[in-house]
Every structure is written in C-alpha cells, then in structure tokens.
C-alpha cells in the first residue's frame, strides 16, 4: 500500500486538540504521501498533502471501510467529552464509534491501528512513584471517560486476538494541553461562560491544595510526535506519554506565585457536584474522583522503543495553556474555535 510517494495515513477526530497536531506533523513528514482527516465538520484549514471527509462515528450508518481503503495506518483519535449528563450519548460516539473504526480497519485490510487510549484507562494507582504499561487498565468505574477508555482496552484485547496480522498501538498520554486548545478545553471542563481572562495569577486569592491532586501533563504537539513515530515504527502495544515534573499544588503555587490553602477532598467534591448538578460546570464530580486516583506513569518504554522525548516540561505546557486561556486562543476548526466567553 505504501509507495515511493510515501505512506497514506487516515486520522479520525482530525480537527480536535490532538488531531490538529497529528495532522500537521504528518503533513510535514516527508515519509508521508497523503493524510485523510475525518471529522464531523470539514474545517477551513488545508495543510499540505491533506484531504478531508465528513464522518460522524456516532451514526450507525457511518461507512468507514471506503475511507480506510489503501491506508497504511489509521490513527484513531475521535472522542466526545460531552454531554457528561448523558453517558449513553458519549458511549455511542466513543465506544460504539471506536468499535466501528476497529471493524473497518480489519475489513479494509489496514496493517496498523494507532489508538488514543489514556492515563484515564488505568486503575487507581500510586502518586509517589510511577507505573509502567503493565498496570491494570480497569479505569474508575463511576467516571464515564475512564469507563469508556477501559472498555476499549478490553475491546482491543479481543481485536488483537482476532487479527494478529494488524499492528495495534495504544497511546496512553497524560493530560494534553496547547495554546490553541485553550478555548475548547475551557468550554469542555469549565463551561461556556467561564471567562478566559480570569486565568490570571493576580486574580486568584489562593490556590486550593487538595490531597491526592497530583497528575501529569504533556504538550499536545509532543504527544502527536509519539503518534507520528508509532506510524512509521514496527512497535506494538501500549506506551505511556507524559512530561516532567508531575503537577501538584506546590508546583502550581510556585508557578503562579499564589499561596496554597489546604482544602479537604470532600469540600472540593461537594462544590463540584453542586455546580455539575445545576449544569453550571460541565466536568463531573465522578471525573474529579478519578483524577485523584490516577497513577503517575513511567514513560521509559516510549523513550527506549519509539525514541520519543517530550520537548517541553509540564510547567512550560501549563504556562502556554494559561496564556491561551487569557487570550481566547483557538484554531481554524470547529472544536478549537477561539473565544473568550460564551
């Protein structure tokens, strides 16, 4: 299927936070001959060597096999974070849509599938040391995001058993940020009416220090480079992706110059649950519960087998993202449209 003209790569969810970075890096890669981006809405953005097709993975009538025909790899990124109050809706897109992707990959004879899993697929784990890819992936069952990511890990287990000829790679990145995703992520997690300009250190009276709130972050472009490397490699299996150092209240306090105030988990959760119940906050208290339990990830395998290294530290990632929030930053796709409020 690949030729002297370069490989053909299909990317689902090509207009989102990760998709735009993956498409851009692939379009700049001399080893790639063409990129087909799949999204619900075709963007006003035309990187080199890139074509677009409108596909809704939540639809039972979505026919992906013709789109995948002749591809050397499919990079599956499509994901719906909302509506958090309707888990059946996200299940239709995220789980049933992903299974349609897997089935079409097999039917079209695509030799490689690179799937976007997540740190959210992991079972609760330690915050004082990192775990490798052998850590159990049963997620946190109360959170739809984690439940769906974990279910797809089991679906891929079965898929690999049925199709050993297909090389399957599972990327498990930490929380992904870039300047251009700031407006989208503010809308997804903070709500449409949270003003981006409020993301200023001088406006924070204090920084809540919640026990267990210690996570990892990564620049989206660094994650996208791991996807690009996986497309060209012969690797299989799972890869943790994260930057150093881990993010906690101490690091954020130093970065923002804001004093920390200890806040019990129960108080923080109650506030989030009340706002979510009133539809004032899109992020659910169940996701908050999951974040407190996510393990820290060891990324040795990605470094050793992919030759991957993050270019930016987690501190640099967050500083860039916060600037983007203040500026209402975005990009020329519908999911990433820039806007400060509303």
Describe it for me?
Helix content is 38%, strand content 16%. The protein has 342 residues and is an alpha/beta fold. A 7-stranded parallel beta sheet has the order 3-2-1-4-5-7-11, with helices on both faces. It has a two-stranded parallel sheet with strand order 6-13. α1 crosses α6 (220-232) and α3 (87-108) runs parallel beside α4 (144-162). It starts with 6 loop residues before the first strand and ends in a 15-residue tail after the last helix.
Strand content: 15-25%
Give the beta-strand count.
Answer: 13
Radius of gyration (CA) equals: 19 Å
- Indicate the mean pLDDT: 92
Number of helical stretches of at least 4 residues: 11
Strand order of the largest sheet: 3-2-1-4-5-7-11
Give the terminus-to-terminus CA distance: 46 Å
What sort of overall outline do the alpha carbons produce when their principal axes are compared? globular
Q: What composes the largest sheet? A: 7 strands, parallel
> Could you say which structural class the secondary elements and strand pairing correspond to?
alpha/beta
Poorly predicted tracts of residues: none
What is the helix/strand order?
EHEEHEHEEHEEHEEHEHEHHEHH
Helix content: 25-40%
């Amino acid at each position: 299927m690949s030729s002297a003209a370069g490989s053909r790569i299909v990317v689902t969810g090509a207009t989102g936070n990760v998709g735009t970075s993956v498409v851009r890096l692939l379009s700049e890669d001399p080893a790639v001959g063409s990129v087909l981006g799949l999204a619900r809405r075709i963007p006003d953005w035309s990187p080199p060597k890139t074509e677009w097709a409108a596909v809704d993975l939540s639809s039972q009538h979505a026919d992906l096999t013709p789109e995948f025909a002749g591809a050397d790899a499919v990079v599956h990124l499509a994901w719906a974070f909302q509506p958090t109050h309707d888990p059946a809706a996200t299940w239709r897109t995220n789980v049933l849509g992903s299974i349609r992707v897997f089935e079409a990959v097999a039917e079209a004879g695509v030799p490689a599938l690179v799937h976007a899993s997540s740190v959210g697929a992991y079972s609760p784990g330690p915050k004082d040391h990192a775990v490798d890819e052998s850590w159990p992936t049963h997620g946190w069952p109360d959170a739809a995001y984690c439940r769906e990511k974990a279910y797809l890990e089991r679906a891929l287990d079965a898929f690999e058993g049925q199709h050993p000829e297909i090389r399957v790679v599972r990327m498990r990145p930490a929380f992904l940020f870039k300047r251009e995703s700031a407006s989208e992520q503010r809308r997804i997690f903070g709500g449409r009416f949270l003003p981006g300009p409020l993301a200023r250190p001088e406006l924070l009276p204090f920084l809540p220090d919640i026990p267990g709130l210690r996570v990892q972050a990564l620049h989206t472009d660094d994650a996208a480079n791991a996807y690009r490397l996986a497309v060209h490699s012969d690797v299989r299996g799972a890869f943790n992706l994260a930057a150093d150092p881990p993010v906690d209240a101490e690091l954020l306090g130093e970065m923002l110059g804001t004093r920390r105030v200890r806040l019990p988990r129960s108080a923080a959760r109650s506030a989030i649950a009340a706002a979510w119940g009133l539809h004032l906050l899109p992020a659910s208290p169940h996701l908050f519960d999951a974040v407190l339990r996510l393990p820290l990830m060891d990324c040795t395998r990605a470094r050793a087998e992919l030759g991957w290294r993050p270019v930016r530290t987690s501190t640099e990632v967050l500083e860039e993202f916060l600037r983007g929030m203040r500026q209402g930053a975005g990009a020329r796709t519908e999911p990433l449209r820039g806007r400060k409020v509303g």
